[in-house]
Amino acid sequence: MVDIKEVAHKVYRLETSVPGMNTVFAIYLIPESDGVLIEPGPAAAIPIIQEGMKQLGMEDLAYIIPTHIHMDHAGGIGTLAGLFPGAKVLVHPRGVKHAVDPSRLINSTKMVFGDDFELRFGPIAPVQESQILAPEDGERISINGRELQIIYAPGHAPHHMVILDHSLKGLFCGEALGFPSQGAEIFLLPAVAPPSFDQELYLDTIERLRQLETQMLFYSHGGVELEPERLISMVAENTRTFGDIVLAGLKEGQAPEAISRRIGDHFISRYGLKVNETDVEVIVSGYAIYFNSKGLV
Length: 297
Ligand SMILES: [Zn+2]
Hints:
Layout: E1 4-8, E2 11-17, E3 24-30, E4 36-38, H1 46-56, E5 63-65, H2 71-74, H3 77-83, E6 88-90, H4 96-100, H5 103-113, H6 117-121, E7 132-133, E8 140-143, E9 146-152, E10 161-165, E11 170-174, E12 179-181, E13 187-189, H7 199-210, E14 216-219, E15 224-225, H8 228-251, H9 256-271, H10 277-293
Parallel strand pairs: 4-5, 5-6, 6-7, 11-14
Antiparallel strand pairs: 1-2, 2-3, 3-4, 8-9, 9-10, 10-11, 12-13, 14-15
Helix pairs in contact: 7-8, 8-9, 8-10, 9-10
Bound molecules: zinc ion.
Protein backbone atom coordinates (compact mmCIF):
# COMPACT_ATOMS: atom_id res chain seq x y z
CA MET A 1 0.00 0.00 0.00
CA VAL A 2 1.24 3.42 -0.91
CA ASP A 3 0.86 6.11 1.74
CA ILE A 4 -1.56 8.48 0.09
CA LYS A 5 -3.43 11.27 1.88
CA GLU A 6 -6.28 13.55 0.94
CA VAL A 7 -4.75 16.94 1.74
CA ALA A 8 -7.62 19.07 0.39
CA HIS A 9 -10.95 18.31 -1.25
CA LYS A 10 -10.12 15.57 -3.79
CA VAL A 11 -6.43 16.40 -3.84
CA TYR A 12 -4.25 13.45 -2.86
CA ARG A 13 -0.60 13.68 -1.95
CA LEU A 14 2.01 10.94 -2.36
CA GLU A 15 5.54 11.28 -1.17
CA THR A 16 8.74 9.86 -2.56
CA SER A 17 12.32 10.42 -1.52
CA VAL A 18 14.84 11.75 -3.98
CA PRO A 19 17.99 9.69 -3.41
CA GLY A 20 21.05 11.91 -3.13
CA MET A 21 18.98 14.99 -2.38
CA ASN A 22 18.31 16.27 1.09
CA THR A 23 14.58 16.51 0.50
CA VAL A 24 11.29 14.78 -0.14
CA PHE A 25 9.30 15.03 -3.32
CA ALA A 26 5.52 15.38 -3.32
CA ILE A 27 3.24 14.16 -6.11
CA TYR A 28 -0.38 15.33 -6.29
CA LEU A 29 -3.26 13.40 -7.83
CA ILE A 30 -6.72 14.80 -8.53
CA PRO A 31 -9.02 11.84 -9.26
CA GLU A 32 -11.75 13.57 -11.28
CA SER A 33 -13.21 11.84 -14.34
CA ASP A 34 -10.32 13.44 -16.21
CA GLY A 35 -7.48 12.54 -13.87
CA VAL A 36 -4.82 15.11 -13.16
CA LEU A 37 -1.28 14.45 -12.02
CA ILE A 38 0.66 17.46 -10.76
CA GLU A 39 4.42 17.05 -10.29
CA PRO A 40 5.09 13.61 -11.79
CA GLY A 41 8.66 13.48 -10.48
CA PRO A 42 11.42 11.20 -11.77
CA ALA A 43 10.61 8.00 -13.70
CA ALA A 44 11.54 6.01 -10.59
CA ALA A 45 8.35 7.38 -8.99
CA ILE A 46 6.04 5.90 -11.65
CA PRO A 47 5.34 2.59 -9.82
CA ILE A 48 4.12 4.46 -6.73
CA ILE A 49 2.03 6.80 -8.90
CA GLN A 50 0.40 3.77 -10.53
CA GLU A 51 -0.14 2.15 -7.13
CA GLY A 52 -1.65 5.38 -5.78
CA MET A 53 -3.94 5.67 -8.81
CA LYS A 54 -5.09 2.10 -8.26
CA GLN A 55 -5.92 2.84 -4.64
CA LEU A 56 -7.95 5.86 -5.72
CA GLY A 57 -9.70 3.95 -8.52
CA MET A 58 -8.13 6.17 -11.18
CA GLU A 59 -7.72 4.41 -14.50
CA ASP A 60 -6.44 7.17 -16.70
CA LEU A 61 -4.81 10.56 -16.74
CA ALA A 62 -6.02 13.49 -18.82
CA TYR A 63 -3.35 15.96 -17.69
CA ILE A 64 0.22 15.53 -16.51
CA ILE A 65 1.54 18.84 -15.20
CA PRO A 66 5.13 19.29 -14.07
CA THR A 67 5.83 22.80 -12.70
CA HIS A 68 9.14 22.84 -14.59
CA ILE A 69 11.49 20.62 -16.53
CA HIS A 70 14.04 19.58 -13.92
CA MET A 71 14.71 15.88 -13.42
CA ASP A 72 13.20 15.66 -9.92
CA HIS A 73 9.93 17.23 -11.14
CA ALA A 74 9.65 16.02 -14.73
CA GLY A 75 12.14 13.19 -15.34
CA GLY A 76 9.24 10.74 -15.74
CA ILE A 77 7.01 12.70 -18.14
CA GLY A 78 8.13 10.90 -21.31
CA THR A 79 7.62 7.43 -19.86
CA LEU A 80 4.30 8.45 -18.27
CA ALA A 81 3.03 10.00 -21.48
CA GLY A 82 3.78 6.67 -23.19
CA LEU A 83 1.80 4.79 -20.53
CA PHE A 84 -1.15 7.20 -20.81
CA PRO A 85 -1.32 8.04 -24.52
CA GLY A 86 -4.55 10.02 -24.09
CA ALA A 87 -2.92 12.40 -21.61
CA LYS A 88 -1.70 15.89 -22.38
CA VAL A 89 1.53 17.03 -20.79
CA LEU A 90 1.34 20.72 -19.91
CA VAL A 91 4.68 22.47 -20.32
CA HIS A 92 5.68 26.14 -20.34
CA PRO A 93 6.47 27.16 -23.95
CA ARG A 94 10.12 27.66 -22.98
CA GLY A 95 10.27 24.10 -21.62
CA VAL A 96 8.75 22.38 -24.66
CA LYS A 97 12.07 21.82 -26.43
CA HIS A 98 13.51 20.14 -23.31
CA ALA A 99 10.48 17.85 -23.04
CA VAL A 100 10.62 16.81 -26.71
CA ASP A 101 14.39 16.46 -26.74
CA PRO A 102 15.61 15.96 -23.18
CA SER A 103 19.32 15.78 -24.07
CA ARG A 104 20.13 18.96 -22.12
CA LEU A 105 18.16 17.75 -19.13
CA ILE A 106 19.99 14.41 -19.30
CA ASN A 107 23.36 16.17 -19.43
CA SER A 108 22.61 18.48 -16.51
CA THR A 109 21.27 15.54 -14.50
CA LYS A 110 24.49 13.61 -15.21
CA MET A 111 26.52 16.58 -14.03
CA VAL A 112 24.69 16.73 -10.71
CA PHE A 113 23.95 13.05 -10.02
CA GLY A 114 26.53 11.15 -12.09
CA ASP A 115 26.49 9.21 -15.37
CA ASP A 116 24.59 6.38 -13.73
CA PHE A 117 21.70 8.52 -12.48
CA GLU A 118 19.21 6.21 -14.22
CA LEU A 119 19.92 3.49 -11.68
CA ARG A 120 18.43 5.70 -8.97
CA PHE A 121 16.02 7.99 -10.81
CA GLY A 122 14.98 6.01 -13.85
CA PRO A 123 15.37 7.05 -17.49
CA ILE A 124 14.52 10.47 -18.91
CA ALA A 125 12.50 9.77 -22.06
CA PRO A 126 11.24 12.28 -24.64
CA VAL A 127 7.57 13.27 -24.82
CA GLN A 128 5.84 12.94 -28.21
CA GLU A 129 5.14 16.43 -29.48
CA SER A 130 1.48 15.50 -30.14
CA GLN A 131 0.96 15.01 -26.39
CA ILE A 132 2.37 18.37 -25.38
CA LEU A 133 0.19 21.35 -24.59
CA ALA A 134 1.95 24.66 -24.01
CA PRO A 135 -0.55 26.81 -22.10
CA GLU A 136 -0.54 30.58 -22.20
CA ASP A 137 0.01 32.57 -19.05
CA GLY A 138 -3.33 32.62 -17.22
CA GLU A 139 -4.88 29.82 -19.27
CA ARG A 140 -7.50 27.77 -17.45
CA ILE A 141 -8.47 24.14 -17.75
CA SER A 142 -11.78 23.01 -16.39
CA ILE A 143 -12.16 19.52 -14.93
CA ASN A 144 -15.58 18.55 -13.59
CA GLY A 145 -16.20 22.11 -12.46
CA ARG A 146 -12.74 22.45 -10.96
CA GLU A 147 -10.85 25.33 -12.52
CA LEU A 148 -7.11 24.99 -12.74
CA GLN A 149 -5.24 28.06 -13.91
CA ILE A 150 -1.69 28.00 -15.18
CA ILE A 151 0.42 30.99 -14.17
CA TYR A 152 3.95 31.57 -15.44
CA ALA A 153 6.36 31.80 -12.53
CA PRO A 154 9.94 32.31 -13.78
CA GLY A 155 12.96 32.81 -11.52
CA HIS A 156 13.87 29.33 -10.28
CA ALA A 157 13.93 28.37 -13.96
CA PRO A 158 12.72 30.39 -16.96
CA HIS A 159 10.15 27.69 -17.76
CA HIS A 160 8.63 27.44 -14.28
CA MET A 161 4.86 27.69 -13.90
CA VAL A 162 2.43 27.24 -11.00
CA ILE A 163 -1.11 25.88 -10.91
CA LEU A 164 -3.89 27.74 -9.11
CA ASP A 165 -6.91 25.68 -8.06
CA HIS A 166 -9.70 28.27 -7.90
CA SER A 167 -12.14 26.06 -5.99
CA LEU A 168 -9.62 25.61 -3.15
CA LYS A 169 -7.79 28.92 -3.47
CA GLY A 170 -4.80 26.61 -3.43
CA LEU A 171 -1.55 26.99 -5.28
CA PHE A 172 0.68 24.18 -6.50
CA CYS A 173 3.76 26.32 -6.23
CA GLY A 174 6.63 24.03 -7.29
CA GLU A 175 9.76 25.93 -6.30
CA ALA A 176 8.42 29.41 -7.03
CA LEU A 177 7.78 30.16 -3.35
CA GLY A 178 10.95 28.80 -1.81
CA PHE A 179 12.51 25.53 -0.89
CA PRO A 180 11.25 24.24 2.46
CA SER A 181 14.03 23.23 4.82
CA GLN A 182 13.01 20.17 6.76
CA GLY A 183 12.40 20.32 10.46
CA ALA A 184 9.72 20.69 13.10
CA GLU A 185 8.71 24.03 11.60
CA ILE A 186 8.82 25.14 8.00
CA PHE A 187 11.60 27.52 6.93
CA LEU A 188 11.97 28.61 3.37
CA LEU A 189 15.20 29.06 1.50
CA PRO A 190 15.29 30.68 -1.93
CA ALA A 191 15.03 27.79 -4.44
CA VAL A 192 18.21 28.56 -6.31
CA ALA A 193 19.16 26.17 -9.10
CA PRO A 194 22.35 27.03 -10.98
CA PRO A 195 22.77 28.13 -13.72
CA SER A 196 19.40 29.64 -14.60
CA PHE A 197 18.27 31.19 -11.29
CA ASP A 198 17.30 34.84 -11.73
CA GLN A 199 16.83 36.74 -8.46
CA GLU A 200 14.95 39.65 -9.97
CA LEU A 201 12.44 37.38 -11.74
CA TYR A 202 12.15 35.21 -8.64
CA LEU A 203 11.22 38.19 -6.43
CA ASP A 204 8.88 39.50 -9.07
CA THR A 205 7.11 36.14 -9.27
CA ILE A 206 6.82 35.98 -5.46
CA GLU A 207 5.04 39.36 -5.40
CA ARG A 208 2.68 38.39 -8.25
CA LEU A 209 1.78 35.15 -6.49
CA ARG A 210 1.23 37.02 -3.19
CA GLN A 211 -1.48 39.05 -4.92
CA LEU A 212 -3.47 35.88 -5.66
CA GLU A 213 -4.35 35.78 -1.93
CA THR A 214 -4.37 32.02 -1.83
CA GLN A 215 -5.24 30.06 1.28
CA MET A 216 -3.17 26.94 0.70
CA LEU A 217 0.25 26.20 -0.71
CA PHE A 218 1.02 22.74 -2.05
CA TYR A 219 4.80 22.43 -1.96
CA SER A 220 6.69 19.99 -4.16
CA HIS A 221 9.59 19.57 -1.74
CA GLY A 222 7.40 19.88 1.33
CA GLY A 223 3.86 19.59 2.57
CA VAL A 224 0.65 21.58 2.38
CA GLU A 225 0.89 24.92 4.17
CA LEU A 226 -1.91 27.14 5.39
CA GLU A 227 -0.20 30.45 6.10
CA PRO A 228 0.68 31.74 2.63
CA GLU A 229 1.17 35.37 3.64
CA ARG A 230 3.70 34.60 6.40
CA LEU A 231 5.57 32.10 4.21
CA ILE A 232 5.62 34.36 1.17
CA SER A 233 7.08 37.16 3.30
CA MET A 234 9.70 34.79 4.65
CA VAL A 235 10.84 33.56 1.24
CA ALA A 236 10.94 37.13 -0.12
CA GLU A 237 13.05 38.27 2.83
CA ASN A 238 15.46 35.33 2.59
CA THR A 239 15.81 35.71 -1.17
CA ARG A 240 16.83 39.37 -0.71
CA THR A 241 19.04 38.83 2.35
CA PHE A 242 20.86 35.80 0.95
CA GLY A 243 21.44 37.72 -2.29
CA ASP A 244 22.82 40.72 -0.34
CA ILE A 245 25.19 38.47 1.62
CA VAL A 246 26.45 36.67 -1.50
CA LEU A 247 26.92 39.90 -3.45
CA ALA A 248 28.79 41.60 -0.58
CA GLY A 249 30.99 38.53 -0.14
CA LEU A 250 31.81 38.33 -3.85
CA LYS A 251 32.69 42.04 -3.93
CA GLU A 252 35.04 41.51 -1.00
CA GLY A 253 36.65 38.59 -2.85
CA GLN A 254 35.49 35.98 -0.34
CA ALA A 255 35.61 32.27 -1.15
CA PRO A 256 32.26 30.44 -1.57
CA GLU A 257 32.86 28.53 1.70
CA ALA A 258 33.21 31.80 3.63
CA ILE A 259 30.06 33.21 2.02
CA SER A 260 28.18 30.01 2.88
CA ARG A 261 29.30 30.39 6.50
CA ARG A 262 28.00 33.96 6.56
CA ILE A 263 24.61 32.74 5.38
CA GLY A 264 24.67 29.99 8.00
CA ASP A 265 25.49 32.55 10.73
CA HIS A 266 22.74 34.85 9.54
CA PHE A 267 20.22 32.00 9.58
CA ILE A 268 21.14 31.06 13.15
CA SER A 269 20.78 34.63 14.38
CA ARG A 270 17.52 35.18 12.48
CA TYR A 271 15.76 31.86 13.10
CA GLY A 272 17.84 30.06 15.73
CA LEU A 273 18.40 27.27 13.23
CA LYS A 274 21.30 25.61 11.54
CA VAL A 275 20.72 25.45 7.81
CA ASN A 276 21.82 22.49 5.69
CA GLU A 277 25.34 23.21 4.38
CA THR A 278 24.90 21.47 1.03
CA ASP A 279 21.73 23.47 0.36
CA VAL A 280 23.61 26.70 1.10
CA GLU A 281 26.54 25.78 -1.16
CA VAL A 282 24.15 25.27 -4.08
CA ILE A 283 22.43 28.57 -3.28
CA VAL A 284 25.74 30.46 -3.16
CA SER A 285 26.90 29.06 -6.50
CA GLY A 286 23.54 29.89 -8.14
CA TYR A 287 23.65 33.49 -6.89
CA ALA A 288 27.30 33.83 -7.98
CA ILE A 289 26.45 32.76 -11.54
CA TYR A 290 23.49 35.15 -11.55
CA PHE A 291 25.48 38.18 -10.26
CA ASN A 292 28.25 37.42 -12.76
CA SER A 293 25.80 37.24 -15.64
CA LYS A 294 24.35 40.62 -14.55
CA GLY A 295 27.87 42.10 -14.54
CA LEU A 296 27.59 43.01 -10.84
CA VAL A 297 30.84 41.28 -9.86
ZN1 LIG B 1 13.87 22.75 -9.96
